């Protein structure tokens, strides 16, 4: 089984061209953050911004606006009740949906709106509550997206796939993924202490980095944002996704050397320097 190791970063992270601008690094929209879970969408947003997304927008409950902007003024904001959200969805390259979204009827309506407005040029990353909602109604899967990335932890995957955690082996997981997204345009990132990535290419990749200091609320929210930020810049290939999974854990390992607990927001903080260190000049 292929392992995800250090060399993936140098394959994916490019030195930026001098004549580039923010539009070259992708537009990303993150949707989530109910009244109780604003932190989740803020952590996801920090993952996206700090991993280099060109333009970042956040659709969330209005109660989160002040906290979001005081931490991340780089992010644009739209109240998730705003009717223009469907138009904004259409303009994005990447959409992350689910961190802190909750499973209310309103949240279900948001996932439905997402499904009805995405197109084949876009990548949708589904995390947390979005997966829980889909587990209740499989018709919510945004099958018109060009690429779908699912990022469940084991219990979320149990809910979506109906495979109980002890029985989540590669064969069963692949079959369930195919059933959920029959056109094969889906990547499954099954998170655990040894995260497995099921690529559109049929391969299963195992993450070799990560540590128990990372067992902290918000760690997965941050990962979803990083995956979004990487896809926005480097495109939706399996290499991009593997690099995002790896750099999240690598940052965690660096912090864990000197910290008992690894805070998700500290991972995001470390990303710009880690990316700089691993960036290669194109053509080399
Ligand atoms: N700061 C914020 O705003 C934050 C907001 N958040 C938001 O909260 C919402 C709910 O998401 P969630 O992940 O917290 O809850 P849920 O889906 O019920 O999973 C927990 C259940 O699954 C079980 N379990 C088994 N295996 C597991 C595994 N490997 N990893 C994890 N769990 C595992 C576990 O078992 P137990 O611990 O009971 O043994 C328990 O029964 C969602 O919108 C999310 O974005 C969070 O992101 C945190 C930061
Ligand atoms: N013991 C561990 N070793 C390595 N990685 C871990 C460990 N515990 C958690 N993680 C990582 O932390 C993240 C947890 O995701 P998730 O459960 O969705 O968190 P949250 O929903 O609180 O943001 C995953 O990327 C997972 O791989
Ligand atoms: Mg999560």
TrEMBL record:
GO terms for molecular function: ADP-dependent NAD(P)H-hydrate dehydratase activity; ATP binding; kinase activity; NAD(P)HX epimerase activity. AMP binds at residues 191-195, 220. Keywords: ATP-binding, Kinase, Lyase, NAD, NADP, Nucleotide-binding, Transferase. It catalyses: (6S)-NADHX + ADP = AMP + phosphate + NADH + H(+); (6S)-NADPHX + ADP = AMP + phosphate + NADPH + H(+). It comes from the Bacteria. Homotetramer. This is ADP-dependent (S)-NAD(P)H-hydrate dehydratase.
